[in-house]
Each structure stands twice: as structure tokens, then as C-alpha cells.
Amino acid sequence: MLFRISVLVLAFAGLSLAQTSSDASSSDKIAGLDLRALDTSVNACEDFYRYACGSWIKNNPVPPDQSRWGRFNELQENNQKILRGILETASMAGANRSATDEKIGDYYASCMDEGAIEHKGTAGLRPLLDRIAALQAKPQIAALVAHLHTIGVSSLFRFSSTEDFKNATQMIAEVDQGGLGLPDRDYYLREDDKSRELREKYVEHMKRMFVLAGTGETQAAAHAATVLEIETALAKVSLDRVSRRDPDKIYHKQRKGALVESMPAFDWPRYFDLTGVPSFSDLNVAVPEFFERLGKIIDATSLDDWKTYFTWHALHASASMLPKAFVDEDFAFYGKTLRGAQEIRPRWKRCVSYTDGDLGEALGQSYVEKYFPPESKKRMLELVHALEQALRADIHSLPWMTEATKKQALHKLESISNKIGYPDKWRDYSSLEIMRGDALGNSQRANRFQFQRDITKVGQPADRSEWVMSPPTVNAYYHPLHNNINFPAGILQPPFFDAEADDALNFGAIGAVIGHELTHGFDDQGRKFAADGNLNDWWTGQDAAEFEKRASCFEKQYAGYTAVDDIKLNGKLTLGENTADNGGLRIAYMALLDTLKETSAGKIDGFTPQQRFFLGWAQVWCQNSTPESARMLAQVDTHSPGEYRTNGTVSNMPEFAEAFGCKPPQPMVKPDACRVW
Question: What is the DSSP secondary structure assignment for residue 277, as one 8-state letter?
Fold first, then answer.
């Protein structure tokens, strides 16, 4: 999850086609619920996740080119095949191609042309490496960093536009911590055996990358050690991931001159000038302490060591579009060592992902035209409205919230806008130059296009119609500064959504996802933003204290779950997502009950609508994971693993116990059940 966008990260996604019992009548063949996934030897009241997913888990091991595999992944794999077909057609050179097809087709074709990439070698990267090597003095670092940032090379810090937390209608400039090669600052600071071993492997990886770029073995080893030393210094002054979940801790608006004065070692005026950012006077310095210390780190580190650091980040950022030796080495560490994947994904899958990442709305136009019919959007809006109505009723009935805060909460709910499927206005890529046969150059120019598009927003009104995910993305998110929920077309397919499925399945799957995103507006982060998107405390002191007390129940509950081996979940890191899971599932169930009042729904495949609702939720989270991936995600992911997203939520719901006849002291009946919404 990126802060400012509470994202239900379904990044490991997959399509499960309609699965039904072989003896079901044609009218009962409902997509989404997979009867073959069930393990009925497990008591649903003892372990509902294993009951709903046990056979799926047994029969769907993690494929060798993945680090985690679930029904999300199945849907993502299916989407990738669809996008591949679109891109292969678009890549056929000819006079009949549209400007959009020409761009996405040539980008994809260039990425797929491994022969041309091998022939070029590192020639396309050489000008950048030479520019780094040509640094003569530390004052020139600012100009180099500006160039690196514009072409997508992470280094030192991050610079972007953002909504002003206190005036969310306006875009301002922002600088934030950054510059690390490992997933999180704690990777550099932990002293357990696994962490030390991983840092050693990271150093070996950097050494091999330097050697591939032409550095001798001895010098490459020294370079790798230098990079680790610099990145460790940056990590030590970075704000930890849990603290970053508090918006008050990453909002520090100040005059531009104050930043310049706090870091005399860095030529900020030169940096801003070369990035092309419009003139501005104020900006958000997300972590002031980081930048105060960064100036000292720049002073204390030699120019040659900075050249080494920037060279590493140039190699790392460019690896995917360099010859096979670089690609394989990059995978060996980031894919295999860090995440546990055994094989690199086929080239076409990677190129589909890169095209979607750099030209997502261009590619998305063809996708939604063919695979997202208007009736799906209409049905989805009906579900959203049903969930909003249920949340409204829930807020009204809360025994712990005072009327004053309820009034504000209801106002915020009424102000939430819904974005379904795809943007109302497509992004214009006409100024982005794509050259067939220049994979690395295309990637750099696409990064420059996106950087410039982002940075020119500074000083402009915020565009709340803009999407931060492409239409084919299997994901959804709530944006607290825009106060809207967003559901790309990619997720609006089975097992999440099926316009022909029974209401129970849709409410248990996509309905709970909708509820999840709505609840993000009222979780421990989202509740700090008002209806207009501004960071503003609209709670009474009494209600805030009551919320914190109830939220702490989730924190303790999930902190007791084991991710892998001796690694426990971080209840504070996952608090917002766990709150949203529990609140979202509850209001989705309320919405289902409202719907059932108007229909006479009987059993399907032997399950009542209430049971199918909970099965629909559980089977969304069927998954397997490599130990390496589970360990990494426990440290950096704000979401709990699928097992606990299932059992953790249903054990807090008496409605689940009633549906399946569970009684204390069975594990799925939590005696001290947690509840906020």
C-alpha cells in the first residue's frame, strides 16, 4: 500500500472460471464458487480457510515463475493473455494502425526483441554511466540526481507532486525519503541471522552486476560494499513503515527556502530548475529529519563513493531492458533470493507488464472496449449503492459513536464518489516518443513522460477524475485525499464479480471488496481525512478514544498470527487493512440481508445464501506462497496473508457462526470478538 492511497493490493491475481458440481442443473451453474476447492474433511468451525480452500491449496502449488499463487494470480494470468493478444496485434507494423496501437505495439515489440537488445549490449546505458563518471565536484550531484529522477532511476530521495493534505483541492511539490535498493529500511537495520545473510547476498548481487558492466572483480566487491554503506546510512535516517501510516508524520509543509537552508550540501535551486517543475514557494517535506541528515551524509561521503552509488542505481533501474545476463542476475536476487521464485517469468509476460506500467491507459482502451461491457459497470454501481446504504445504516446504529461524530461520518460517506472500470477521459500519450527497436530508450522516455506529467501538476488544481491504476489492473483502492473509491475493469471478473452469479457470491466477493474500500475512509488512516479530503480531525475526543480502543483489538489479534517460521504479523502495519476487511465484510453481509428481503433465495449446491456469502469471501483468498515471499511480505505488506484475511474476519462475526452452526470454544468463534464498524 502506498500512503495517500489505501490500496486493496491484489497484486497476485488470477481468474477462476466457473466451477460447479457436475450434477448441477444449467440454471445452477454459477461462476465464482469452486466446489472442487473445498476440503470438507475440515470442520468449517475449526478452520474455515482450510474448509473453503484446502483442496485448492493442495492442487495449486506455487508455479516456478511465481513467488505467491492465488485466485488473484489466476485472474491476472488470464488478463495477461488478453493483453498479449492485443499487443501482438498492435505490434504488427502497417499503415492501418492507430496512433495508440502504434505506441503500445512498438513498445511491446521492442521489449520482445531480445536479439536487438543483445546486439546493443550496454551501449544505450553508456551515456548515463559516462555522465556519472564525469562528476567533478559534489555541487554537481544535484544536476545528476535531477536527470536520474526524470528517467526513473531512484536515488537519494523522491520528488513528486501531491495534494496538499490541508487543502486537497490543490497540488503542491513534495520531497520524501528514498534511495534504497532493498524493500524497506529495516532490511539494513535488523541483526537477525536471516537479515544479515540477505545483506550478504545483496552485496554479492551488486558485485556481479558491477562485473557485468565491466568492472574488475576486486573493484566490484569494493563498490558493492560502498553502496551498502551509503544505503545503510540512508536507512538509519528514514522513517519506519508503521510510522509512515500516520499522515501527520509525513506532512510538513514549509517554505522552499527552509529546505534549501537545511541542506546547503545539495544545490536545490539547480535540481528544481532541471526537473522542469513550475515555480513554487511551498512544498511538503515528508520527513524533515531525513533531509537534515541527508545533507550531512552527502558531506561525509566521498565523490567517488557517490559515483559508485549512482552507478549501481542506474544498473538496477535499467536491468530489465539490458542483455540477458543482467536480466538473469537481477532475477537471481530480486526474484529468487528475495521472493523465492524458481524461474523467471516468460519474456512476453514481463513485456506485457512493462507496457501496462508505462502505457497503461493506452493499452486499457482496447481492453475495456472488448472485455468490459456497459452492463457490468451498471451492475457494479448497483452493488456499490447497496454497500453505501448498508454502511449508512451501520453508522446510524453504532452504540459507541456520539451523534456529533455520526453526523460528520455520514457527511463523509455521502461525499464519496465512485469510479468504475476506466477513466472518463483517456490519458494523452501523443508527446511520448516510442522508437521501435530501442527498448531501454523507450523505458527511459516513458519514465520521463510520467515524471514530467506528474511534476507539472504543481500549483494546479487536483484532478479527482484521474486514475492511479490502469484499467486492466486486478486491484482496487480508496483515495483519502479525493474521497473516492476506484475499481478498475481488471478486477470486475470472477471470482470477484460475475453479473450472472447469485447475489450471495457477488456480495461475499466484490461486495466485500467494495465494503473494504468504503471502510478505508474510516480506518485508522482514512478517518483522519474529512469529507473534502483535507487532513482534519472531525472526531470528538470521546469518539476518537473509543475508536482507538476498538482498533487496538485488531492490532493484538493479528499480531498473534504467524506469517512463516518465527515471523509474526505486524499488527500495527496491517491495522488499516484488517479494519477494512472486517468492516467491509460486515457491511457486505448487511447489504446481502437487505437484498434477500426482496427475493426468495434457496440453497445452491447445498449451501444457503449466507453460507455462499462467506465461501465467496474465503475463496477470494485461496493462495500458496514461498517461505521467502511470506517472510518479505510480513515485513513490508500492509495486508495480512489470505488465511488470516479469512479466518481473522469470520471469527469476529457472530453471523458466520450462525450460518455454519459454530459454537464456543471452536476457533472460528472468537470469544473477545473485535469490531469497529
Answer: P
| Preceding peptide of 671 cis, ω within 30° | no
Residues 471 and 488 sit within 8 Å (Cβ to Cβ) = yes
- DSSP for 216-227, written as a single string: -HHHHHHHHHHH
Sequence-distant (6+) residues with CB within 8 A of 340 are 62, 67, 625, 626, 627, 628, 629
What φ, ψ does residue 590 adopt, rounded to 5°?
-60, -40
Q: Which helix (H) or strand (E) holds 383?
A: helix 374-397
Furthest-apart CA atoms within the chain: distance in Å: 78
Q: What is the dihedral of CA 642, 632, 290, 142, to 10 degrees?
A: -110
**Distance spanning both ends of the chain, measured CA to CA:** 21
Place of cell 513550475: 278
* 406 Ramachandran zone, left/alpha/beta (phi>0; psi -120 to 50): alpha
Report how far residue 263's alpha carbon sits from residue 267's, in angstroms, rounded to the nearest whole number. Answer: 8
At 541-586, the pLDDT tens digits run 999 999 999 999 999 999 999 999 999 999 999 999 999 999 999 9
Query: Distance between CA atoms of 345 and 80, rounded to whole angstroms?
Result: 12
Give start and end residues of each alpha helix (H) in 95-135. Answer: 99-112, 114-120, 126-133
Are residues 625 and 62 in contact, defined by beta-carbon separation less than 8 angstroms? yes
**Alpha carbon 539 to chain centroid distance?**
29
Supply 278's cell numbers: 513550475
Closest CA to 512 of 10, 1, 40, 3: 10
- 623: helix, strand or coil: strand
* Nearest Cα residue to 337 out of 153, 234, 206, 152: 206
Q: Is the CB of residue 184 less than 8 Å from the CB of residue 346?
A: no
Whether 88 is catalytic: no
Q: Can you state the angle between helices 439-455 and 99-112, rounded to 10 degrees?
A: 130
Q: How far apart are CA 532 and CA 562, in angstroms?
A: 39
Does the annotation count 414 as an active-site position? no
| Residue 333 DSSP label | I
Q: What is the mean pLDDT of residues 210-230?
A: 98
Instruction: Quick: pLDDT tens for 419-444.
Output: 999 999 999 999 999 999 999 999 99
Check 106, 330, 517, 577 and give the catalytic one.
517
Checking 142-145 for CB contacts under 8 A at 24+ apart, the result is: 142/266, 142/267, 142/268, 142/270, 142/271, 142/274, 143/267, 143/270, 143/271, 143/274, 144/310, 145/271, 145/310
Q: Is 169 exposed, middle or buried (0-12, 13-18, 19+ CB in 10 A)?
A: middle
| CB crowding 579-591: b at 16 or more within 10 Å, else e | bbbbbbbbbbbbb
In 367-525, where do the E strands start and end?
A: 417-421, 476-479, 484-488
Catalytic residue among 106, 356, 581, 655: 581
H or E element at residue 614: helix 609-620
Nearest of 445, 482, 132, 534 to residue 310 by alpha carbon? 132
Global pTM?
A: 0.93
Annotate 429-474 with DSSP letters as a single string. Answer: -TT----TT-HHHHHHHHHHHHHHHHHTTTTSBP-TT--SS-TT-S
Please name each of the domains of the chain with its CATH number.
6-22+33-83+373-425+474-660 (3.40.390.10), 126-319 (1.10.1380.10)
